[in-house]
Design a protein that fits this description.
The structure holds 2 protein chains of 2 kinds. Chain A is mainly α. Chain A has helices at about 1-10, 10-35, 40-75. Chain A is built from 3 helices and no strands. In chain A, helix 2 packs antiparallel against helix 3 (about 40-75). The two termini of chain A are about 30 Å apart. The chains are: A mainly alpha, B mainly alpha.
């Protein structure tokens, strides 16, 4: 619950920026595995890379939902 | 550089995605509808394309003999032998067949049922575990003494090409007399005395060690 409260406290811009950074990290891991397809890069890309990418997209979706809710609250006070 | 189209698609979508995200991080534009769409491309659509095509490229890469033999030093003798044109081992003779090509390890060691690719990759994860915790620190010679194939090599893999129904195959006395056992998988095609061992390293090393 504490984690959820902390997540809720992050600003929309903060969430989107963190999502962007996580996505770049995930893409970096995936590109590394493509250019050097040995065990470590391939394993990292298919585990950590996928996890980072999924979390980043989840953060983006949460940010958009928060933004829509904020816009609705501003429209219908 | 590889000519794999999946690789280029993954690299292209990554480049565009990084450009879009870099633009957002540096310029810090307000979160308008247009910005959200750009971010949807940069965080959602393009990385999904990279992950999808990257995974396919990864699957292709992990099927190559080079990957098998260069990733784990204990596999190097196996890979080198299969690519040696002078070798007469069962593995090398099959590897010279163009159908096996540069994926000759995978061609024989993959599972071929419906979800064979997935079960093979899960098996590959076990190989990574075994190598990391049990074989990584051993010399090749020491590892060869310990190494065992996890399950007996399945005759079904051989029978994908050698159907056991060809008259010339059945004209061989040993084949005809063992037909039922071969089909049932109780007598391995790759056993010593028949056509094996496919890779004469581990058993030879065990013999040397026991002397």
């Amino acid at each position: 619950m504490r984690l959820w409260r902390r997540l809720r406290a992050i600003t929309i811009t903060g969430l989107v920026r963190a999502a962007a950074v996580l996505t770049i990290l995930a893409l970096g891991l995936m590109v590394w595995s493509l250019l050097d397809p040995s065990v470590l890069p391939v394993m990292l890309a298919m585990s950590v890379g996928q996890l980072f990418g999924t979390i980043a997209f989840g953060m983006y979706v949460v940010a958009i939902i928060k933004d829509l809710r904020r816009a609705r609250a501003a429209r219908d006070p | 550089m590889s000519s794999d189209p999946f690789l280029w698609l993954a690299l292209g979508s990554t480049a565009i995605s990084v450009l879009l995200l870099g633009w957002y991080l540096v310029r810090r534009p307000p979160l308008t509808r247009a910005t959200k769409l750009v971010l949807l491309l940069g965080i959602g659509v393009l990385p999904l394309m990279t992950a999808g095509t990257g995974n396919v490229a990864g699957y292709h890469a992990t099927k190559t003999t080079t990957f098998c033999s260069s990733s784990c030093h204990v596999m190097t003798p196996y890979g080198n032998d299969s690519l040696d044109p002078a070798s007469t081992t069962l593995a090398a003779r099959h590897a010279r067949n163009a159908e096996f090509g540069h994926e000759n390890c995978y061609a024989c060691h993959a599972d071929y049922e419906m979800f064979g690719t997935i079960t093979t990759k899960i098996g590959g994860l076990r190989h990574v575990y075994e190598y990391t915790f049990n074989y990584h620190q051993l010399s090749t010679e020491a590892a060869l003494v310990k190494m065992e194939i996890r399950r007996p090599f399945a005759n079904a893999t051989c029978m994908r090409c050698h159907s056991t129904q060809n008259p010339t195959w059945n004209a061989v006395g040993d084949h005809a007399s063992t037909l039922d056992r071969v089909r049932a998988g109780t007598l391995s095609c790759a056993s010593e005395g028949c056509h094996g061992p496919a890779h004469p390293f581990s058993k030879a090393a065990k013999r040397r060690a026991s002397l």
